[in-house]
Design brief:
By secondary structure, the chain is an alpha/beta fold. It contains 13 helices and 18 strands.
Length: 469
């Protein structure tokens, strides 16, 4: 079957609404926009119409309303991680603690920390300004302690924050009595609380942002996977865009672009959503401010109370050999039962509640466990990403940084430590698969040992840290 016919089949047959709970609730038809055809010219062409690409387009056009901006999207806007995630709009990000730990990078790390703290507020302002109904509720985040080792680790983290100069208003310990005012989890003995996370409807946000960007003059082409990138030129099967700058905003889908297989590893996160819960059950659970919550195990878990009264809950999934990216999963996939059991371990009140939606998606994981953003004046290529599942908020900050970099402005944002020449490459296969899968296995074993009352194996901890150092 020719590629043109395949695209027509996708346009006609693919049920976009079925690919996540968030997408299933969208009232719009999700009909794909026009494909890229023929020769096109722009000032900036952006590969990817998810959060990173759209926020970059938004701030570029806010800064220069007459700028010619084109976005090329392989599917439809929001079909990737932007429409599949846990809906945590975070004022924090993976890798920042590493910067704060080192005295040499602590000062820029603190500047980055404070920029991230403010980011959910900036996103809320944009949503309010443009009437995007993203179900935004800034109830904060609860990192739950369900084992003595969790309490020990969370208290140690809190002490470090104080040592690094982060005030108590940003992170504080909630003993069981105070935690119960927010979330009543029988297994949790306390929680580390931060106000800098909001629950959002991620698909409403990304689709609304796409409409805003279009209204400001950008052109979004869908069902237009990029097959080649050259300096100042992006090629698809049926068209080309010639531009002063090319922005790579493909996150976990980056390995699908020729020549970029090793830049980011696509790690899949798996999610479930419950049926709407009765008010009597919410009275027992709490989350009246729609606080986000998760465990303190090494394998990340994350949940939120949705605006329509469900719980959406997820956990980090798997890496597939060769950086394979999956978008569809069987409801019978055993990973979904593991996610459900993780949720029930926190909230046993849900043990008999029906799971109505199951889905997964790929996030971008960098080799050095740090997000990055940068521009290369010689190749005219810019990039941002590597959020490791925390991009709902961080992508907004990246869009603002990229806007300043592309305009060659030196600002407080362009001096943040995320600005880098590029991502370090991952290893070739099979070493990439062996490393990522081995680390996940080590983390799972360590979690199981602690849950059974044993100490985590120090060798496993050493090997994990060595792998990412």
């Amino acid at each position: 079957m020719g590629l043109l016919r395949q695209v027509k089949e996708v346009r006609r047959v693919r049920d976009w609404h079925s690919e996540s709970f968030w997408l299933s609730t969208l009232a719009e038809e999700l009909s794909p926009r026009s494909e890229l055809v023929g020769q096109n010219h722009a000032d900036v062409v952006i590969v990817g119409a998810g959060y990173t690409g759209l926020w970059t387009a938004y701030y570029l056009l806010k800064n220069q309303p007459n700028l010619r901006v084109i976005l090329c999207e392989a599917g439809i806007s929001g079909i990737g991680a932007s429409g599949r995630n846990g809906g945590w709009c975070m004022g924090m990000a993976e890798g920042v603690d590493t910067l704060l730990e080192d005295p040499k990078t602590r000062e820029p790390g603190l500047r980055l920390t404070r920029a991230l703290f403010e980011t959910p507020n900036e996103i809320e302002r944009v949503m309010d300004r443009h009437g995007i109904d993203g179900h935004f509720k800034k109830g904060g985040v609860l990192s739950l302690a369900t084992l003595p080792s969790h309490e020990e680790e969370l208290h140690a983290r809190l002490s470090k924050y104080a040592e690094w100069g982060i005030e108590e208003e940003h992170y504080r310990w909630l003993p069981k009595s105070e935690l119960n005012d927010r979330l009543r989890s029988p297994s949790a003995t306390g929680a580390l609380y931060s106000p800098h996370v909001a629950a959002v409807h991620p698909a409403n946000l990304v689709r609304g942002l796409a409409e805003v960007v279009e209204s400001r003059g950008a052109n979004i082409f869908e069902l237009s996977p990029v097959c080649e990138i050259e300096p100042g030129c992006v090629k698809t099967q049926h068209g080309q865009v010639h531009a002063d700058w090319v922005v790579l905003a493909t996150e976990g889908y980056t390995p699908s672009i020729p020549g970029r297989k090793r830049r980011l590893a696509p790690i899949h996160s798996m999610m479930v959503a419950t049926e709407p819960l009765p008010e009597s059950l919410w009275d027992d659970i709490g989350l009246s401010q729609r606080e986000t919550f998760g465990g303190s195990e090494r394998i990340t878990t994350y949940g939120q109370r949705t605006a329509d009264g469900r719980i959406a809950f997820g956990s980090r999934g798997l890496y597939y050999y060769g950086s394979k990216i999956r978008e569809k999963f069987s409801d019978q996939d055993p990973l979904f039962e593991q996610v459900r059991l993780s949720l029930v371990s926190i909230l046993p009140q849900l043990k008999d509640i029906k799971i109505t939606h199951r889905w997964g998606g790929a996030l971008g994981f960098s080799r050095n466990v740090q997000p990055a953003v940068g521009v290369d004046a010689q190749s005219r290529l810019a990039f941002a990403g590597g959020y490791m599942g925390e991009g709902v908020g961080a992508s907004n900050l990246m869009g603002r940084i990229l806007t300043d970099l592309l305009n060659e402005r030196e600002t407080p944002l362009t001096s943040l430590p995320w600005v880098a020449p590029d991502f370090p490459n991952w290893e070739l296969e099979p070493f990439r698969w062996l490393g990522v899968t081995g680390v996940r296995t080590f983390l799972e074993v360590a979690d199981r040992r602690e849950a059974s009352g044993k100490k985590a194996n120090r060798l496993f901890e050493f090997l994990t840290n060595k792998f990412y150092s």
